[in-house]
DNA sequence: AGATATAGTTCAAACATCAAAGTATTTGAG
DNA sequence: CTCAAATACTTTGATGTTTGAACTATATCT
């Protein structure tokens, strides 16, 4: 492929990637939830509206250790965004739920995402959108491959020498 | 637009976004530069191969405060990836350069990016690629709009009521 | 020359993160 | 049934990143 095109698209992706968090945080600061950081908002987002996932589930999805999540939940509970709900049938597990305020923050963040994705896809027809989705799928697949390779360890990356 | 399509693409973008840093870091740990974090690598990337940008330039591009960059450069210099070069004509300014080792790390990271972008665009022809690029442009434009709106302050977002 | 501006550094505080040890609870083997 | 092992989460201590504000050194402007 053309080197120039690669450079240009790479540069744009890097720029977009770098700016998203910054801008999400700035938007956040303007609204009624100025006591939330972007990371806290992402935790709220991972908890989701009504699923009452367990702590373990959320920490795995977020790729952080259980201890990290505990600390994050402590803060969000103190600020009134999240509630811990102890499971009746197995008292070891904690289920996480958003308070009314938490759901409100969730919706605000979601509407930002909606606007962002809408503008990403603005002006394309169904076929073109599915082409773009295919490119995104390519990217995710690439990341998943790398992820599995990393899990197996570097020595077995290609060719499965073990056994 | 179709709500279902939005949900699906949003979910994929969020997942991709979340995984990129994790996987870049994992890849990094496998190679010869295991003493670098992903943030440090991004600093090296912002310094670029041969431009000798000033500290201010780099900190602005990275959207961090000058103090943050100083700390990062201290670490990278200690580890032998970056050199400070004092400007002859204006002794206040520091220009930043990569050492041989720093350039080597830069290249490794760049090759990861290259593979990632290549897989993103895999299987598309020129026209299709320029369509995808257009979508990325849309996204960047959205972010820039939001960024300017944020700079002006929330009260003047739309309609320039001042004066 | 002296005031002001600019470039970068230092410092103290806040926060996120992790690994490892700890607590409470459940499960499973005998 | 009982106790050892497993599981779910929390606590703790250490590390690294980030910021804002005060600071140093240098340049520019009047």
TrEMBL record, chains A, B:
It comes from the Bacteria. Signal peptide: none annotated. Coiled coil: none annotated. Residues 1-141 form the HTH marR-type domain. It is found in: Cytoplasm. SUPFAM superfamilies: Winged helix' DNA-binding domain (SSF46785). Keywords: DNA-binding, Transcription, Transcription regulation. It holds the Pfam family Staph_reg_Sar_Rot. Its main location: cytoplasm. PANTHER family: TRANSCRIPTIONAL REGULATOR, MARR (PTHR42756), TRANSCRIPTIONAL REPRESSOR OF EMRAB OPERON (PTHR42756:SF1). Belongs to the SarZ family. This is HTH-type transcriptional regulator SarZ. It comes from Agrilactobacillus yilanensis. The lineage of its organism: Bacteria, Bacillati, Bacillota, Bacilli, Lactobacillales.
């Amino acid at each position: 492929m053309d080197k120039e095109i690669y450079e240009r698209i790479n540069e744009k992706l890097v720029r977009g990637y770098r700016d998203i968090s910054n801008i999400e945080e700035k938007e956040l600061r303007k609204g009624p939830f100025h006591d939330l950081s972007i990371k806290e908002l992402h935790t709220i987002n991972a908890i989701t509206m009504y699923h009452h996932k367990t702590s373990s589930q959320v920490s795995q999805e977020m790729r952080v250790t259980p201890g990290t999540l505990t600390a994050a939940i402590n803060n969000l509970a103190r600020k009134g965004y999240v509630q811990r709900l102890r499971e009746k049938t197995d008292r070891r597990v904690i289920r996480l739920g958003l308070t009314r305020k938490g759901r409100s923050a969730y919706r605000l963040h979601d509407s930002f995402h909606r606007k962002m994705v809408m503008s990403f896809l603005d002006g394309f027809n169904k076929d073109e959108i599915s082409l773009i989705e295919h490119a995104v799928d390519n990217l995710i697949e690439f990341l998943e491959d790398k992820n599995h390779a990393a899990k197996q360890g570097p020595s077995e990356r290609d060719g499965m020498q073990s056994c």
